[in-house]
């Protein structure tokens, strides 16, 4: 089966070696808290919370951290109220970028995102201009040195996965959002590198190494911002491209 994108492979490969990914826990805690605030603290009756917990477990977050985040969301523990925002943008070369934000200060987040884009030669887009280029999909990744593609594929397809692909040592399983949880459960015997609902581009724009480096640096800057939860793009990174 063919994969849709090399982006997740590069992102997770890079993330495994990047000490700054400790910041991921902060972002996961915010997502769990807002999911619990909006839909209640029982994951059985709150699909968004279930998905956030699956993602946190995929990142090896301790159960105590997850429980505290839920309690902050439901008000059992004191917490911060976050707003959800999505910014649509163009990076240099017309690359489409979706930026998902959870913030306690909307004005600060907007100013920060705009500043990061402007410095990199990008700009904000009108509502709908970029989001129409993406589809929401479940993405689960596994270490290709630990498991074979056939091992993962057999279990994934039984669970209802759409696609399984091996690229640069990472096995990527793609699902429809409504099948994500069933596929995660079907793959429970395998240790995942990540499990999340992502925005996947319908088509990619192929980049050379120089342009790829510029786009990756912009994405890094956005992801380093505390208010930014997720960044998605339709950048087609070259074979063998190494994130700095």
From TrEMBL:
Arranged from A to Z, the UniProt key words for this protein are: Cytoplasm, DNA-binding, Transcription, Transcription regulation
**Ranges for the TACO1/YebC-like N-terminal domain?**
5-76
Single annotated GO MF: DNA binding
- What's the main place this protein lives? cytoplasm
Coiled coil ranges: none
Gene Ontology biological process: regulation of DNA-templated transcription
InterPro entries documented for this protein? Integrase-like_N (IPR017856), TACO1_YebC-like_2nd/3rd_dom (IPR048300), TACO1_YebC_N (IPR049083), Transcrip_reg_TACO1-like (IPR002876), Transcrip_reg_TACO1-like_dom3 (IPR026564), YebC-like (IPR029072)
- Domain TACO1/YebC-like second and third, by residue range, is 82-235
The record's listing under SUPFAM superfamilies reads: YebC-like
Task: Please tell me whether the keyword Repeat is annotated for this protein.
Answer: no
Location in the cell: Cytoplasm
Q: Please indicate if the UniProt record lists Transcription regulation as a keyword.
A: yes
Q: What cellular-component terms does GO give this entry?
A: cytosol
Instruction: Give the protein family.
Output: Belongs to the TACO1 family.
Under NCBIfam families, the record lists: PRK00110.1, PRK12378.1, YebC/PmpR family DNA-binding transcriptional regulator
PANTHER family cross-referenced by the UniProt entry: TRANSCRIPTIONAL REGULATORY PROTEIN YEBC-RELATED, TRANSLATIONAL ACTIVATOR OF CYTOCHROME C OXIDASE 1
This one is known as Probable transcriptional regulatory protein JFL75_13825
State the species of origin.
Breznakiella homolactica
């Amino acid at each position: 089966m063919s994969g849709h994108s090399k982006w997740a492979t590069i992102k997770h490969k890079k993330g495994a070696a990047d000490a700054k990914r400790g910041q991921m826990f902060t972002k996961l805690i915010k997502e769990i808290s807002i999911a619990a605030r909006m839909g209640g603290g029982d994951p059985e009756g709150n699909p968004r919370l279930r998905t956030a917990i699956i993602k946190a477990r995929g990142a090896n977050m301790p159960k105590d951290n997850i429980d505290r985040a839920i309690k902050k969301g439901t008000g059992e523990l004191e917490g911060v109220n976050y707003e959800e925002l999505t910014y649509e943008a163009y990076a240099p070369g017309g690359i489409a970028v979706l930026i998902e934000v959870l913030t306690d200060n909307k004005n600060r987040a907007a100013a920060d995102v705009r500043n990061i884009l402007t410095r990199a030669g990008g700009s904000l887009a009108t509502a709908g201009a970029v989001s129409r280029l993406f589809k929401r999909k479940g993405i689960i990744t596994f270490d290709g040195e630990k498991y074979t593609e056939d091992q993962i594929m057999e279990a994934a397809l039984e669970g209802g996965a759409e696609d399984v692909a091996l690229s640069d040592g990472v096995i990527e399983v793609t699902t429809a959002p409504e099948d994500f949880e069933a596929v995660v459960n079907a793959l429970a015997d395998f240790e995942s590198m990540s499990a999340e609902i992502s925005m996947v581009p319908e088509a990619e724009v192929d980049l050379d190494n120089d342009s790829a480096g510029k786009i990756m640096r912009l994405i890094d800057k956005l992801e380093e911002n505390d208010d930014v939860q997720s960044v998605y793009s339709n950048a087609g990174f070259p074979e063998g491209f190494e994130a700095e």
